[in-house]
Amino acid sequence: MRVPIGWLAEYVDLPAGTSVEDLDTAFVRLGLEVEEIHRPEGVAGPLVIGRVLEIEDLTGFKKPIRYTQVDVGEGVAGDGGRDVRGIVCGATNFAAGDTVVVALPGAVLPGGFEIAARKTYDRVSDGMICSVRELGVGDDHAGILVLGSGTDDVPPPGTPAAPIVGLEDVVIELAVTPDRGYCLAMRGIAREMGTGLAAPWRDPGAVTPPAWSGEPAWKVTVADPDRCDRFSMIAMEGLDPTAPSPWWMRRRLAQAAVRSISLAVDVTNYVMLELGQPMHAFDRDAVNGPITVRLARDGEELTTLDGVERRLTSDDLLITDDSGPIGLAAVMGGASTEIGDGTTAVLLEAAHWEPTGVARTARRHRLPSEAAKRFERGVDPEMTVVALARAAQLLSEYGGARVIGGVVDLDTRAPRPTIELDAAKPARVAGVPYTAAQVVELLGAVGCDVDAGGNPLVVTPPTWRPDLTDPADLVEEVVRLAGYDDIPSVLPTAPPGRGLTERQRRRRSVGRTLAEAGYVEAPSYPFIGLPVLDALGLPEDDPRRQVVVVRNPLSEEEPALRTTLLPGLLATLARNLSRGQRDLALFEHGAVFPGDRRTPAPLPGVDRRPDDETLAALLGAVPEQPWHVAVALAGNREPRGWWGSGRPATWADAVQAARLVAAAAGSELTVRAGDRAPWHPGRCAELLVGETVVGHAGELHPRVCAALELPARTSVMELDLDALPASEVPVGPPISAFPPVLLDLALVVEDEVPAAEVAAALETGAGELLESIRLFDVYTGAPVPAGSRSLAYALTLRAPDRTLTSEEATAVRDAAVAAAAQRTGAELRA
């Protein structure tokens, strides 16, 4: 909301000496964030009001050129004569008798444009007649700024023009929160500022509408009073379609960032900014028959004022006539009844609409109009007829229109609810000793009716504050108006810390381990779109397709909570590849949200603390949110350089990342062949702890790489960190001072036998003297038979209390080979 200080000063008696900075501070103190302060660029030198006396059209030039005689005030000699200047001008939108703004020689306009007397087009131009754009107060390209004609109430020639055209008017732009919709109008801003500065203020809505007589202007029916509890309308005729909007109105609309269109439309926009009541003007001659406010039928269509044909749903509220929809209620009017250049008769409508329905319609059709923005935050239903009266007055004064017939006012509102408030509650909440009298006074300043005959107080919120529904809302208003600065800032004594939990230590350890291994953390939003599950090739019965859909998502394209980390991580990988990165190793760890098990949660009230049973039900309804870790690799794992050609990342790197994660968590993985989307069925490893599958690693399926625009053989790993067993307190291994015995074994096994199973058999057979075992070579080819491979292991043997003899080492080796042969069919390679 943009607030011109000059406009605000019409309603609030600002204390003498109040600066822009003082107003800034007052707005912030009242809870209204100041986003920006717009100061118009200054004009130096003489800038005055002038009246055009004569116009001479110059001929012989390629474009229209006019030589004007302009009265700019009293003569410099002070003898009562007039100072008339000859000025050359190329604009044609003004006539003799019009009042304009003149920059005299010596003036400097915005942008450093200096004005001087000079000869041009065979005439001496002694000044310049200015446009809105040249004055820096707007972007209007219509030509010269005309303040009025000879019969209008305009300042006399010679009057300083800067304050009239707004060159001295600072505009403060406010960020209005959704619960403060009344501050989207000068009426609400004036109330807030008058209260905040303890200054007298005037309510522009505190007027009594005229008693229009006669039959109602139009027949109106409201078929859905739950969505529209007040609908008001008047009819006017005799409007001069050529009548321009007055300059002061166009200036204020421009200051509020609203484009001037025509007198009828400008008036409705101006009244909306002044009183907070959005309105709509229909071309009365284009309305066919009675008006009905009803819900749309599925499939109905309406072309709105922006020229878009919109397909409607049964939740859209419409304004209709015998021809069908003529307006999307509270959001935008229809093109069929739009005010045109020849409109002389209008229907003015002002209504009160149910906010949530307006919000749904505006978002469904992606129409964030100024009217919808106010209606969805709540407007004052008392303003409908007041706004009609104000608009009728302006159209009559500046367009010659007159009201015909009586007013239509269909009012089905329920009585305003009351709220009981303990007078001592604001003091208990804020820690400030507010007296009961002070609470009553501050609530009265808000606009509430307070029955202070007893305790609790019985408070009736004002009609313009639909956000006041609970005692907590009233407490907030008391604290806000009394001043947030009065609340003491007392920091509680921090309890002694217990350090990180085991789960926190594990997560941090996993992150550090992957970072030290060369992976870059790339956290993503926990929201996904359903099409990405198709791109990953997940089967229809895959549990990862059972997602939790958010009711009001940040993005309609990503409405669901993720059940796997891969969509966000792979999207990050693709984005970095598209920006020229080639060698990437990314990781993310975070919660996923399986949607296969759901328990409905109760909805407790906000008036008291939930009881233990309700809290238990709430906690029981929270679904499991397991913590996953995922990595993605593309390009080279080891860079190329003078030392060699580099090494591309493979599925083995993804498996190794899983091993690193498990080791950091105090566990050890077993790896075996697996088959799970989105991995390549022949290059997918299943990760196990004992007999429990905790994750998968390997290459992505080629179809997935193509769908996500990733390079072939992109490798990924995802592991359920919470599925790993809790790590025990580590106990350091005994350290022997005796020398080790190093043995190398090469065993021939069939291709189907996992290397991990062979290693486990060797470890079992070797017994307690085995200190470590490591696979260091895999070989296929002659003399190893086809269908088999040679696995070479390095064994380290050591005794804690003696040096091993060659006989003991040989016995350990033979036992290990025998165990491997028995369990896996391995044969010692010759």
Query: Strand content of the residues, in percent?
Result: 25-35%
Class from secondary-structure proportions: alpha+beta
Uncertain residue ranges? none
CATH architecture annotation of the largest domain? 2-Layer Sandwich
Number of helices: 21
- The side-by-side strand order for the widest beta sheet comes to 28-31-32-38-37-36-35
Query: Got a strand count?
Result: 42
User: Which CATH class of the largest domain applies here?
Assistant: Alpha Beta
Q: Summarize model confidence as the mean pLDDT.
A: 91
Number of domains: 6
Largest sheet: 7 strands, mixed
Q: What does the oligomeric state look like here?
A: single chain
CATH superfamily of the largest domain: Bira Bifunctional Protein, Domain 2
Q: Radius of gyration, rounded?
A: 40 Å
Cα-to-Cα separation, first versus last residue? 87 Å
What percent of the residues sit in helical stretches (DSSP H or I)? 25-40%
Instruction: Give the overall shape.
Output: elongated
| CATH topology annotation of the largest domain | BirA Bifunctional Protein, domain 2
Describe this entry's structure for a reader:
The protein has six domains: 2-39 and 170-197, 2-Layer Sandwich (Phenylalanyl-tRNA Synthetase, Chain B, domain 1); 47-165, OB fold (Dihydrolipoamide Acetyltransferase, E2P), CATH 2.40.50; 220-411, Phenylalanyl-tRNA Synthetase, Chain B, domain 3, CATH 3.50.40; 421-486, 2-Layer Sandwich (Phenylalanyl-tRNA Synthetase, Chain B, domain 1), CATH 3.30.56; 502-604 and 611-723, BirA Bifunctional Protein, domain 2; 741-828, Alpha-Beta Plaits (2-Layer Sandwich). The protein has 21 helices and 42 strands. The mean pLDDT is 91. The termini are far apart. It is elongated, with a radius of gyration of 40 Å. The protein is of the alpha+beta class and 830 residues long. Helix 6 crosses helix 7 (263-275).
